[in-house]
Here is the input.
Amino acid sequence: MKSETRFLRRYSGASGIQELMVDLDLALSGPRKMYMLGGGNPGRIPEMEAFFREQMERLMADEDRFERALGVYDHPGGNLRFRQAVAELLQQSGWDVKAENVALTQGSQNAFFLLMNLFGGVREDGGEAKIVFPLSPEYIGYEDVGIQKGTLKSFLPRIQMLDEGFFRYEIDFDRLVVDENTGAVCLSRPCNPTGNNVSNQQLEKLYEICRAADVPLILDAAYGLPFPGIVFDDSRPFFRPGVISILSLSKLGLPGLRTGIVVGPSDVIEKIERLNSIFNLSCGGIGPALALESIRSGQLLQKCHSILQPHYLANRNLAIEMLRNGLSSHGLKIHESGGAFFLWLWFDAPISTSRLYEKLKEAGVIVVPGKYYFPGLDDPFDHRDRCIRLSFSQNRENIEKGIAILIEIAKREIEAVS
Ligand SMILES: Cc1ncc(COP(=O)(O)O)c(C=O)c1O
Here is the structure.
């Protein structure tokens, strides 16, 4: 029998992100009514949907732009006018970038696949370059992106307890190792799954460590500033020479467009462009065509401020209030929420959140068990099976009903082990 290829072997097993996407599809499109507190799907916000419909109508009314978006392959680095518009928007926030510093990808997930294999994996000299995640837990979607298994290396956080049942993870600089075996350092900010906005001070320190080791710092801003801007504190975007920032149109409410945006040094952008032409020829044209005018006019940012951010802030406050009222007396701790549309819940009691997830699913509520959010972490850490990630992206009724069931079932599980 012929032996299978390494690529096939690498990708034939179970993958957390695939299970999550299947659950998401089941909850949003399956026959049974489920309360969706899982997945990374943005909410359907009527005002945003109306805005995007209007943008689409304008595009279709144009003599030529719609036909070009459908009928012409864009430049392999992404539509040039769109890249120019993104660069100009970022310049307004003080970023020293031009169109040559911007490339598009088929969703930002695709950018992570490209970047993590450009910077991580087996080197020419036989050594291995690791992608370092300084702050675990991290985004589930990074888990299997390294073609070379074992490319990711995560570090345990320091835990800071806050008032009123909140806590936060901090980078533990005493533990962190960034050295000649590091290919790149990466973190999501705001973080999926915790909502953590790593402070500018910690980021500055991390950046200096990366500079000293001549290693790029990759910042995943899928939820961050300038768009979609789902940020609830006063943190600022972070851009310095050598930093690679990843943006996306998805969390604006446009995940179907699959438009990711890489901003970074021009030599990195050239590599993305080359890989795009090999893997995709070019990226889909509809995302850039739909968003171009509103990025140029500033209308998109304005909608983020006036509709998107307030929507998620109100949902977050509702979810926190319900959870604190329902479960503080049962030892629930909530990670401080600085952005994105997730809450990271940590149960004091020795329950299994994998079991809690199954119980909730039976009762029609989807959350994500914490165990998936530790890509590249080898150390033991009891948060793996004591935490869940809850999404508050969907509508109020979904949050109210879903969390009410969650509180009831979590109480039962906790009381059973106390
Ligand atoms: C932190 C983070 N990064 C990247 C992505 C990828 O998003 P997309 O490929 O839709 O741009 C997601 C999606 O959920 C995410 O949560």
User: Anything to note?
Assistant: The chain is about 40% helix and 15% strand. The mean pLDDT is 94. The longest strand covers residues 182-188. The chain has two domains: 6-49+302-417, 72-297.
